[in-house]
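TICKET: design request
STATUS: open
ATTACHED STRUCTURE:
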């Protein structure tokens, strides 16, 4: 059910055409790039939230919807933020950052939805860049060794074509040059017993979920987990506890596009 709308949308998304085609299709790519202006004329890009036709300098979201973003302003907050407080007494975290507040019916919700189901990997990279430009502006995050995107099951990745957290991490990495490690953690195959558990509990049932070799030596002192949206924090809490069991001394920070208010 998810796959079909995804395919349908991709037909109308020229960036989907141009970016991921393999090197064996360079000629085809050139033709697509050549005809892109004509394609855009026939199928103009529209704002993913209000559906108004976009200007060339507006990627995915029109300026009007972007102006309505509810920024958290955490980058300028000296006292503990609501996101810091969300993990108090639950998991020990170093720094936390969410760029936007998530509200139902908002442009932020449209962004997160399109990033997950709309075959728009580039949107993740754009949001990742925005996170980095806000958070790292005040010389914070200097000790972070690596970005760890929250893993998704390989079946979901296959259907969606990408892991949205990985795309957000790529955007952060482009600005900060902090490397990404996709192999540090991975989601185990969903067993029958796990299907009865909640999404968060599944993390705590992934003991040994680290790749072979990773348990022998820890090359990182400070990792930053990258997620798309934080609601209750239960998934991250379970994931952090799992990591701390293997690496008790490791420092963990959290980055997300949005958090629920
Ligand atoms: Zn709009």
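STATUS: resolved
RESOLUTION: sequence designed for all positions
ATTACHED SEQUENCE:
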């Amino acid at each position: 059910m998810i796959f079909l709308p995804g395919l349908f949308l991709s037909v109308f998304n020229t960036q989907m055409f141009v970016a991921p085609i393999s090197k064996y299709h360079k000629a085809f790519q050139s033709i697509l790039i050549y005809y892109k202006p004509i394609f855009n004329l026939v199928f103009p890009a529209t704002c993913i939230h209000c559906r108004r036709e976009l200007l060339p300098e507006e990627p995915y979201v029109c300026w009007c919807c972007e102006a309505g973003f509810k920024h958290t302003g955490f980058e300028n907050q000296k006292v503990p933020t609501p996101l810091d407080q969300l993990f108090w007494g639950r998991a020990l975290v170093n720094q936390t950052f969410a760029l936007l507040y998530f509200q139902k019916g908002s442009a932020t919700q449209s962004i997160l939805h399109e990033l997950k189901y709309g075959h728009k990997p580039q949107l993740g990279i754009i949001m990742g860049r925005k996170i980095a430009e806000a958070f790292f502006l005040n010389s914070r995050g200097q000790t972070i060794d690596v970005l760890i995107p929250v893993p998704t099951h390989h079946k979901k990745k296959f259907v969606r074509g990408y892991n949205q957290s990985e795309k957000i991490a790529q955007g952060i990495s482009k600005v900060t040059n902090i490397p990404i490690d996709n192999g540090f953690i991975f989601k185990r195959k969903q067993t029958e017993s796990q299907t009865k558990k909640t999404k968060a509990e599944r993390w705590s049932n992934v003991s040994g979920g680290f790749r072979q070799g990773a348990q022998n030596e820890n090359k990182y002192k400070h990792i930053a987990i990258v997620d798309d949206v934080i609601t209750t924090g239960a998934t991250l809490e379970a994931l952090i506890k799992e990591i701390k069991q293997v690496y008790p001394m490791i420092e963990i920070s959290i980055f997300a596009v949005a958090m629920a208010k």
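CLOSING REMARK: Residues 68 and 198 are 34 Å apart (CA to CA). The first strand starts at residue 96 and ends at 102.
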